[in-house]
Amino acid sequence: MMKIATDSEPLVLLECLVAGTSHRNNLVQYEPSLSVGQALQLSREPGNKYDDWAVQVHTAPATDPANVWLGYLPEGRNETVARLLDAGKNISARLNHKSWESDWLHLDIEVLLHE
Fold first, then answer.
1. Distance of alpha carbon 58 from alpha carbon 50, whole angstroms
2. SS3 for 86?
3. What is the pTM assigned to this prediction?
4. Is 3 a domain residue?
5. Any idea of the CA torsion for 88, 90, 65, 101, to the nearest 10 degrees?
6. What CATH number should be reported for the domain holding residue 107?
7. CB neighbours (10 Å) of residue 89?
8. Total domains in the fold of the chain
9. Domain containing 68: what range?
10. Which of 70, 85, 90, 106 is the most buried if burial means most Cβ atoms within 10 Å?
11. Within a domain: 2
């Protein structure tokens, strides 16, 4: 569901789960430091051999030593965000919810477009 942006708030483009968290081996140790409301970074992976519109979800810019790669925006729901990132738009994400479901880390995020 899209929310209307105000002058001070970004536009919510997408609400989704982070895909691929079960393939990120360091998340068991890192998860306790993730907090609801935390800002997340998105970066394109145009060379991904499985998804032309791959968008990675990170805790910080990729150049930051504290960065942790959490996973991806879900395939099939990522094309618009990928195109906006490719066009240089200011897009970020925010963690809405986290929980463990057996050995899978469920991360629910909002993707945000900033003016």
1. 19
2. helix
3. 0.89
4. no
5. -120
6. 3.30.70.2330
7. 13
8. 1
9. 11-113
10. 70
11. no
